[in-house]
C-alpha cells in the first residue's frame, strides 16, 4: 500500500498533462517516463517500506527543492555536510537555486575538495536552468565526478538529467558504465541495476512508437 499515493499522484499528473495542458500525443511517452522515474522509487538503496526512507527518488524528474536536497543527502549517510552546504540547502529548499549556487561556489573557492558541495552545485545549476542540461551544468557534474570518483551520486544525477532532456541512450550508456566499474558488493549496485532495467524498457517502448 505504500506505493498507492505515489501511483495516484502519477496518474493525476499524467491526466493533467494530457488533458489540461493539451500535451501532444507525441510527447506522452517522455512525459510518462519522467513521472515513472520521478515517482517510482527512492534514492538508489531506498525502500518504501523501510522506516526513515527518503520520500522521493534520486531519479525524480521534477523534484521540489526539499526533495532534491533529501535525495542528495541520502547518498552521503548521517555525516552532516559543511556549514556552507547546509546554508545553500536552505535556499535550494525554497527553490532559490541561483542563491544556492552562489554560496556553493564561494564554499568551493575555499574548499575545492568537498565532493558533496560539488554535487549540490551541479544540481543547483541544473534546476536554475529549469532542468536543462546546459554546458555549465554538464561541466559541474563532470567536476563533481572527478571530486568523488567511484561514488554513484554525480553519475546518477547526471543520468537523471539526461533522461529529463530526452537523452535516453546517453543516460543508459552512463549508468551501464558505472555498473561495469562498480565493485560487486557496492551497496548502490542493485538499485542502479533496477533503474537501468526500467530505462531499457522505456527505450524499447520509445523505439516502437
Q: How are the elements arranged and paired?
A:
Elements: H1 4-20, H2 28-39, H3 65-73, H4 83-93, H5 97-110, H6 115-128, H7 135-147, H8 153-164, H9 168-181, H10 189-207
Helix pairs in contact: 1-2, 2-10, 3-4, 3-6, 4-5, 4-6, 5-6, 6-7, 6-8, 7-8, 8-9, 9-10
Low-pLDDT parts are 40-61
End-to-end CA span? 32 Å
Top CATH class: Mainly Alpha
Total number of domains = 1
Shape type: globular
The helix-strand sequence is HHHHHHHHHH
How would a crystallographer describe the biggest sheet? Answer: none
Annotated CATH architecture: Alpha Horseshoe
Helix content: 55-70%
The fourth-level CATH homologous superfamily is Tetratricopeptide repeat domain
Report the strand count: 0
Derived from helix and strand composition plus strand pairing, the structural class reads mainly alpha
**Helical run tally:** 10
**Mean pLDDT score:** 79
Radius of gyration: 17 Å
Per the CATH scheme, the topology name is Serine Threonine Protein Phosphatase 5, Tetratricopeptide repeat
User: Beta-strand percentage?
Assistant: under 5%
Concise structural overview:
With 209 residues, the chain is mostly helical.
Give an account of the 3D structure:
By secondary structure, the chain is mostly helical. The chain has a single domain, classed as Tetratricopeptide repeat domain (Serine Threonine Protein Phosphatase 5, Tetratricopeptide repeat, Alpha Horseshoe). It is built from 10 helices and no strands. It has helices at 4-20, 28-39, 65-73, 83-93, 97-110, 115-128, 135-147, 153-164, 168-181, 189-207. The longest helix is centred in the C-terminal third of the chain and has 19 residues, at 189-207. The protein is globular, with a radius of gyration of 17 Å. Mean pLDDT is 79; it is low at 40-61.
